[in-house]
């Protein structure tokens, strides 16, 4: 990316949505790990 390029910032709503999806993805990954452990213990 060049210094002369215009700043490429998405609108606030899009950034908020991306943040929420990122958190949701992390939570889903953790839930899958916990589920695998629970299934493995039984």
TrEMBL record:
Lineage summary: Bacteria, Bacillati, Actinomycetota, Actinomycetes, Kitasatosporales
Keywords for this protein: Membrane, Transmembrane, Transmembrane helix
Pfam families attached to this UniProt entry: MmpB
Listed transmembrane segments: 20-41
Protein name as catalogued: Uncharacterized protein
Database matches in InterPro entries: MmpB-like
Organism: Streptomyces werraensis
Transmembrane as UniProt keyword: yes
Keyword presence, Transmembrane helix: yes
